[in-house]
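Task card 7
Instruction: Convert sequence to structure tokens.
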Amino acid sequence: MNMTRPDPNRRDVLKAGGAMAIAALSPVALAGAEAGNEPVPARSSGSRRPMKKAVMWGMIQGGSSVLEKFQILKEAGFDGVEMDSPSNIPNDEVKKACEKTGILIEGVVDSVHWRQTLTHNDPKTRAAGVEGLKAALRDCKELGGTSVLLVPGVVDKSVSYDDAYKRSQEEIRKCLPLAREMGVKIAVENVWNQFLLSPLEAARYIDEFDDAAAIGWHFDVGNVINYGWPEQWIRILGKRIVKIHVKEYSRAKRDHEGLWKGFQVELLEGDDDWPAVMKAFDDVGYNTWACIEEPGGDKDRLKALSERLDRIISL
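Output:
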């Protein structure tokens, strides 16, 4: 793997907020994105893309109720949130908070997919995972979201790669009719689960369902950097991308401090080549939601993240 870090001059520009200096990298946006993605309008140099901004529910610190947390999120400059499901938060409380604040539900994360994996050796565990996914699809529909983030399974010493591939597809297929009925897409995410490690394989995996209305890809920008380049994945996955996670990663911190330390870096200060990443999103017609997955905090912390995301979206 090429461990060469990005050109320091470009990174200095990013840290300084010099969006105008790299405006020439802005692509001519494409139109005609598939269902869920509105056509991408032509964008003037340095202008902000029409992406809506979100964070994951667990990032919002402070506030003792859903309403108070959504108010914090709104004041920090965000448009929406990615909830967890199944959860112990009543949907009615979430919907009322949305009505009062204008915060939208971007989608939900399947909250059981790491415990009740769809690739587990125990059929009962896989069955529980299917029920969890179905519950998430129903909750997402009720809350007004459009996708459920799914980790499709895990490969480890006890679960072989080929078994994981076969089992996960079999279990997901049981949920496709409900996804179509709900009008909510199952969005498979690239995570460190030792599975679907290539963008070509990821694209084939999704295509084999032959159901673009019910399943696609949730692309995590930062998760790829340890073993690839996000812009390459984006162009290969193309219209299969349903939603994205905006995350940073530093190969230098990984090499000097440990694998997971690579995530401990602020947006715009790691090894994401954000101009190339955003150009790739433009080229494939993705322009809906940008959801941050970084350490969260109070309103000031979220506002700082919102401002960094604004800079990324404008590159």
